[in-house]
């Protein structure tokens, strides 16, 4: 499946790195410790022989053509912050890193679109867009390190999903390199002129198994004039009532996050460490009069449901969202699991209850960190951080079955390799298996793009 790097391949890579269209070749023994760690977490079997850093799209296509001819499996990589998500890659001798493909190609301020290369860092692009009072509306995990290509390849989106939907809904153009080195383009740079097959949606969340993304075009949004966050806390039943009331109302939040008891405690919102009080974080962003009007409605709702209310503005608001995200990301795959889960929105409250019941069955020291869970209440999707000492394969199986019984799923993003070997990270039971296999065969017939990482 993966092939071996022969002496001829080594010689070709050295020549490739020395041509004007080439890039940088780094053999495994010279790879940085940070990249070695990421790749060890992401792979099983032999470690990759080298990382190729193309300095141009032409150099990337040349490398893919040669890998195709020689039968060499490759791992597409950006910064590597999410390289260890999902399944373990099996025997891929080369890593193709897009880190140097980081240009902002075009920012059409009047059209509210931006085109960037896949290796561009999200934070760097945000700084440029902010000068025109525009932003991407993307809030992924590990945002400080994430590249745009990596965010799309993993379909990673957080609380802003409530207002702006998934990342694939704002992607209007894409370029990627196929398994055989051919460059493919789909969509366009103008919102009203997107034609052809919708490959943007297909490549999103494909985890580098269908092609190597090189360039992306997004629609943008104006930076909101005013922002305010209200957090309601209380018992499960009234919090559930608040979620449904907001979803049926004219309130249009940017974020609507259902917070587990552990996260409420960690944010200092008055819960015991393993308390059963839940939280609901509501972020309002619009012109000032609209934010004030919606805030007044939510205050009235909190009073009617007998829920505690805290309001955050300015720096305090930024801080509470930063702490929520930091606590969700905290730890490494050695000492905790990071999961993505989803259920029907009407089942979110009962799912948090099921999680608590399952965790109480496992005896752990009193000072063990609590489970940190967050649902994006408009969609029923969310993330879950579980301390390793609280997790067994049996617990994961029970929790996965609960999610599936409620119209959802449970995906293991980060976990110790020993657990991933014994528990399928994806656990897919839907009816699209055959279709995914056919798509994979069309895009990567020899299974040489991140073999073993995704469902097929």
Characterize the structure shown:
By secondary structure, the chain is an alpha+beta fold. Among the domains are: 104-222, Uridine Diphospho-n-acetylenolpyruvylglucosamine Reductase, domain 3, CATH 3.30.465; 226-319, Alpha-Beta Plaits, CATH 3.30.70; 330-422, 2-Layer Sandwich (Alpha-Beta Plaits), CATH 3.30.70.2730. 34% of the residues lie in helices and 24% in strands. The chain is built from 15 helices and 21 strands. It has helices spanning 7-18, 33-42, 57-70, 122-130, 148-154, 161-164, 199-203, 236-248, 261-266, 288-304, 314-329, 348-360, 393-405, 417-422, 433-443, and strands at 23-27, 43-44, 50-54, 74-77, 89-90, 94-97, 104-108, 113-117, 134-135, 171-177, 183-187, 212-219, 221-222, 226-234, 255-259, 278-286, 308-313, 336-342, 372-376, 381-387, 409-414. β19 and β20 (381-387) form a beta hairpin. 45% of the residues are buried. The mean pLDDT is 93.
